[in-house]
Amino acid sequence: MAGKSGAFVRILMAAALVAAAGLAVAADNPRTPMPKPPKAAKGTECVEPVADMRRNHMIYLEHERDETVHKGIRGRKHSLKGCVECHAVPDPAAKGAATVRPFCAECHRYAAVRIDCFGCHARVPESRAAAAPPMSAPGKSP
Questions:
Q1: Which end of the chain, N or C, is more open, meaning fewer C-beta atoms within 10 Å of its C-beta?
Q2: Residue-wise pLDDT tens digits, 37-67
Q3: Residue 40's closest CA among 108, 88, 92?
Q4: CA-to-CA distance for 103 and 87, rounded, in angstroms?
Q5: pLDDT confidence bin for 93, thresholds 50/70/90
Q6: Are 7 and 61 in contact (CB under 8 A)?
Q7: Burial level of 97, CB count in 10 A (0-12/13-18/19+)?
Q8: 3-class DSSP state for residue 108?
Q9: What is the C-alpha to C-alpha distance for residues 54 and 92, in angstroms, rounded to an integer?
């Protein structure tokens, strides 16, 4: 239980930092360049209003992660898979594979927030691919 409350506190602190960073003020200040993420590749509207998703997407994704990982519930309204289905675009960092990195990175760079989703959620997870030993034939040592 402590892990869940600690994660929730981290989310609230991150939201407060983003608000304190001046996202609301930036719209009033023409010298501050606002992020312009790519448009959704599919669909006409998001599962929530845009302003709500900008402010709360991390809460929705963490809740869905907990439901999926701990309870096996998949295919819900705020799933990462749903985000990818609409927002994936060709990504040079993924050798042209369609990912949501360009979409996510635009605002996350602006807010100086590190995204760690793609260590696991990519066609070839970066950390595991780099750390995996080469495969060898059965019965032969590497």
A1: N
A2: 888 877 778 889 988 988 999 888 888 888 8
A3: 88
A4: 7
A5: confident
A6: no
A7: middle
A8: helix
A9: 24
Task: Tell me phi and psi for residue 138, to 5 degrees.
Answer: -55, 135
Residue with tokens 């807010």: 111
Query: In which residue are the tokens 């970066």 written?
Result: 126
Distance CA 35, CA 7 (A): 27
Residue 13 one-letter amino acid: M
pTM, rounded to two decimals: 0.56
State the average pLDDT for the chain.
Answer: 73
Provide the pLDDT for residue 81: 80
Radius of gyration from C-alpha coordinates of the chain:
18
